[in-house]
Specification:
two-stranded antiparallel ribbon, ProC C-terminal domain-like fold, Arp2/3 complex 21 kDa subunit ARPC3, cytoplasm, transmembrane helix, alpha/beta, Rossmann fold, 3 domains, 6-PGluconate_DH-like_C_sf, transport, 476 residues, eight-stranded mixed β-sheet, cell inner membrane
């Protein structure tokens, strides 16, 4: 074993290269590094820096104190299988592969039982490590000695800051926050640039302003004794334009983020612009601004009651028409023709007032429709209708909201189709399973008609979107 710190990288990609830049001249020299990578071009790049390389794992690995597995998760087991027999008792193993637990890694390394005795540390860096400005979450198996923890911290500090977690499950939170965090920031930068361009700035001007704003605000937050909330308040004058913008921003983008931070990763990203800005004519720019659905209009009590009444009327009438005595034939009911209008109403509410208010109308309509259906339809049909309605409508709202920034027809078309299929088979299964009614045949026939009607309703949706369903302009 060599006397100085020796490190073997199994996998020589970008993250390994970033770590090498911080390690050389600090913790070790080029002759103390080995890179195992099957790619000749990758090995040549490392060799040009004076680093030893190998195309495959071999006995020489046993001479290196620290092994860093820097391969993609899907090839990790293969990489470990090729190298584990050269592992020594005092070898420190560090994995930077996301999602692979120490239990899995230790098992592949073929360590003696118990697996907790393995000198194994998992880490989760992020892409700013490529310029040595990253931050890495670290977790060590329980029996890893403090000297190995210190060594791992020294190694990972070469690419930025380090945060230790005591529970391996917390690495999932690290992945969601800092591992995926740069993607959130990059998308936010894209959105700021797009917003600047839509207000008349050039691409270069908007980009410089956005990047400098993010950089300056981050440095200010990092160096200030005040929490971010106080810093935000310092910039926000009561009743001013910043306060108005933040209010709309919070309502449209961050409500779900506050409730479930980082749990669903990309679902919390800004929804008002997901793609790079493309050159557009003034007419297209105006149309895009008119369809900007992040500025949702407030829904009045009168509008809410009207929407609930319309939706309730459609549901109750559909529940009457779906009963056996009103079947059109052996595979179709009249309810298949009336019920899709509910999705049209929901989609228009979602477009104008936003998903939160659409869910409110659906919830109230659900209660009203179930109670009313008990009086005019079979109780089992009423229960089935309520369960199917609530499930399908909430799905429609969710899918529509995810697709609202796509072409105008995609959100109502895809959301309506998915919701119609779920609603139909759920309703007929609950209402008629175990009876003499051929519910599978009826469900199949009904869903086919609903899908056709859903496509036909795109025309009135397009018309009404610019009247009932389009958010009105809001003064800043």
């Amino acid at each position: 074993m060599k006397n100085s710190l020796t490190i073997a990288f199994i996998g020589g990609g970008n993250m390994a290269g970033a770590m090498l830049g911080g390690l050389l001249g600090n913790l070790c020299q080029p002759q103390d590094i080995l890179v195992v990578d099957p790619n000749q071009e990758t090995r040549s790049a490392w060799e040009s820096k004076g680093v030893a390389t190998a195309a495959a794992a071999s006995e020489v690995l046993s001479q290196y104190k620290v092994w860093i597995y820097a391969v993609k998760p899907q090839v990790m087991q293969q990489a470990i299988h090729a190298s584990h027999r050269f592992l020594q008792k005092d070898t420190l193993v560090i994995s930077i592969a996301a999602g692979l637990t120490t239990t899995s890694l230790a098992g592949w390394l073929d360590q003696a039982e118990p697996a907790s005795a393995t000198r194994l540390i998992r880490c989760m860096p992020n892409t700013p490590a490529l310029i040595r400005q990253g931050i890495t979450g670290l977790y060590a198996m329980p029996d890893v000695p403090s000297s190995d923890r210190d060594l791992a911290q020294d190694v990972l500090s070469s690419i930025g800051e380090v945060v230790w977690v005591d529970n391996e499950a917390q690495l999932d939170a690290v992945t969601a926050l800092s591992g995926s965090g740069p993607a959130y920031v990059f998308l936010f930068i894209e959105s700021l640039i797009a917003g600047g361009i839509s207000l008349g700035l050039s691409q270069e001007q908007a980009q410089r302003l956005a990047l400098s704003t993010l950089k300056g605000a981050s440095l200010l937050a990092a160096g200030s004794e005040d929490p971010p909330a106080r810093l935000r308040e310092n910039v926000t004058s009561p009743g001013g334009t910043t306060a108005a913008a933040l209010n709309r921003f919070a309502q449209a983008i961050l409500q779900d983020w506050y409730r479930r931070p980082c749990r669903r990763l990309m679902t919390a990203l800004p929804k008002w612009h997901r793609s790079r800005p493309q050159p557009a004519s003034p007419l297209k720019i105006q149309e895009r601004n008119n369809m900007n659905t992040t500025r949702f209009e407030k829904m009045t009590i009168k509008q809410t009651l009207l929407a609930v009444a319309i939706m309730g009327l459609i549901i109750v009438s559909s529940n009457i028409l779906v009963q056996p005595q009103f079947h059109i034939n052996a595979w179709l009911t009249w309810g298949a023709i009336t019920y899709p209008i509910c999705f049209l109403v929901t989609d228009l509410l979602n477009r104008r007032f936003g998903p939160a208010r659409a869910r409110r109308v659906v919830s109230i309509g659900f209660i009203f429709a179930v109670l009313a259906s008990y009086a005019v339809a079979d109780s089992r049909i009423a229960i089935a209708s309520g369960v199917a309605f609530l499930t399908a409508q909430l799905l429609d709202i969710l899918v529509f909201d995810r697709l609202r920034d796509k072409s105008w027809w995609k959100a109502p078309f895809i959301a309506g189709w998915l919701a119609a299929i779920i609603d139909t088979f759920l309703f007929f299964g609950v209402a008629f399973a175990g009876t003499d009614v051929p519910w599978v045949t009826l469900a199949t026939g009904d869903v086919g008609i609903k899908l056709i009607i859903n496509a036909m309703l795109l025309a009135p949706f397009r018309v009404l979107m610019w009247n009932l369903g389009r958010p009105r302009s809001v003064q800043a």
